[in-house]
Sequence to fold (764 residues):
Amino acid sequence: MTDKNTDKRTALLSATLDLVSNHGFHNAPMAKIAKLADVSAGTIYNYFSNKQDLVDSLYLHIKNEFTNAAFQGYDEEKPVKEGIKLIWFNMIEYKMANPKQANFLSQCEDSQIVSASVREQALEHLQPLLNLWERGQGKGVIRDVSPYLLYAYMVYPLSFFVAVKKRDEFHLTSEMQQHSFEMAWSAITIK
Amino acid sequence: MTDKNTDKRTALLSATLDLVSNHGFHNAPMAKIAKLADVSAGTIYNYFSNKQDLVDSLYLHIKNEFTNAAFQGYDEEKPVKEGIKLIWFNMIEYKMANPKQANFLSQCEDSQIVSASVREQALEHLQPLLNLWERGQGKGVIRDVSPYLLYAYMVYPLSFFVAVKKRDEFHLTSEMQQHSFEMAWSAITIK
Amino acid sequence: MTDKNTDKRTALLSATLDLVSNHGFHNAPMAKIAKLADVSAGTIYNYFSNKQDLVDSLYLHIKNEFTNAAFQGYDEEKPVKEGIKLIWFNMIEYKMANPKQANFLSQCEDSQIVSASVREQALEHLQPLLNLWERGQGKGVIRDVSPYLLYAYMVYPLSFFVAVKKRDEFHLTSEMQQHSFEMAWSAITIK
Amino acid sequence: MTDKNTDKRTALLSATLDLVSNHGFHNAPMAKIAKLADVSAGTIYNYFSNKQDLVDSLYLHIKNEFTNAAFQGYDEEKPVKEGIKLIWFNMIEYKMANPKQANFLSQCEDSQIVSASVREQALEHLQPLLNLWERGQGKGVIRDVSPYLLYAYMVYPLSFFVAVKKRDEFHLTSEMQQHSFEMAWSAITIK
DNA sequence: CATGAATGAGAATTCATTCAT
DNA sequence: CATGAATGAATTCTCATTCAT
Fold:
């Protein structure tokens, strides 16, 4: 029974992800979500209190998944560069392997579709990276600038790759990933 | 008479910009746009054929404004670094001075609210920067990578500053702008 | 449950019929239809995909009802004159007993309010009459002319009676019906 | 100057006719009419007090044109059959030569697009035919039935030919016209 | 008279949400 | 819990008509 519940919840989140990332937040009406999840429209409200809650929940879910992936295999003992490299490649790998999720996250960053409060919550997940940067700054490796700047040059560009990839303009080969990491690393480190 | 026409058109574009950048594409119904522009709802359709056309027009208008600002004072004789620096600071200056416009552009990049065809049109405006990169690559200054990568590390991060600034989390001081440019420059150049 | 569904659908068709036949196709907005059917405006779209579909469905429904009435008691063994007489009186009886339906059909014949494809569909129902005419022609009773001509003089005039009756200018008594049939019969037969 | 006035009025009537007969009464907005007449939207209201007046005027104009054509060459001295034949062929000729007008009239007969009062006015034009029928009845040639019946079998069927012709289903050849007249004549006369 | 931008009521349609079954 | 018909407010867009120029 619990499984079934979980199944429906998951199916709804998944359907929402599909629709929003493929057709935009508008063009993702509850009726379509329900149909795609193979569930009745009314059932949604047994799992989510309203559409905002559904979207917020999806955002949190994916953000969590993403951060878990990002820190996969990472521990705080690792040398700074190795840690950064691991995290960076984890991130790009997740985004390439999960384009819908990546696209959804991008859409959420710049728009108002996710509640402000929820977006703030999600920031906390990033703490290990903040710590790592701080450690790197202590060691004189990472530039002594606001984490916002570090984020802007290490993490944020990844969204761009997803956006253009989605429009089939561009595909990031693994060689390009290497270059891209070098560029990120050059940006955030002291030469 | 021409003035009046231009006025209303401009007022409508401006109202759309206000609403979309402050409250998102949804929550920007035509009725609100009309009211904010101090115009009757039906009047919108004297200037734009439908909502998509209104949004597309706004996008093109702003993109054009942005690119004009970006290339202000630039000529192709300039040394590579000087040119890049000029363009980069032009861009950040425009975005800081015009947060609504900047925010609107960000929203458009990752979502489906602007027509694909219009977004493609807008790309052409970037040509001078592409040429400059190529020149820099020819001189062995700029990394020999896809312009997508160069864009991702030189231009794209600017959007992030706007996004967080909007949420009052962060303000990019002029010192930070200096650092930020150095980071961008490090990313795209051969050390 | 099925009853309720059918009820609402029927109520909507009936309301549409009322409004269109009494006030014309324009002056039959969806809101009025809904109100007359004692149903919410949005409910219409649970039963019909749009206004065109609603009108088309109504047309098919009535045309079907009309043709059923027309061929009531008819079988292909009947002598030609008897068959024609039966059908003709069935038709006039239906139209007199159902002036709204008759009027609606008239409105549809000459205007663009019903989809071309649907109007074509409806033609098939007339097949038995075409067969009967052919049989009559084979026997040298019915004029050897295009069925369009036969239709024009046997069936089409009935619409006129409905049109004028509706404006209270004229009522077709049963004696007149007799005369009218004789006129139709004279028109389509070889003297 | 008077010519110009007349020109614009005529152009507007003509544009209305075009649009209504080709695309139906709905799909004939004032703006389109104005554009097709090469006139400003506001100008319409210098010639007609509103849309209803425009349509009514068009109806009267065409009905008048039609009746003039119908009685072309007719005088009350003519023998009954000759008179009827002349009028009948005048009518069919007009309708075949002026399909838009014919179609417009058909649309008006069965719908509510023309004011009731105006439709009544138009009936008066038919007086000479009523007189002719009466004369024929006096002579024992024409059936002694209501003029409504005579109209239904002599005049009304012509509308049908126009309706089907418009849909390209059928074309009335001159041989068919002969047959059709014979059918009409058989219908309305005493054998 | 002519223009055509402006109006705003009203049209068709959508959609998040509710609730009886 | 699940259903899905029903709701009605909200949305986009149309259109007859007006009026300042």
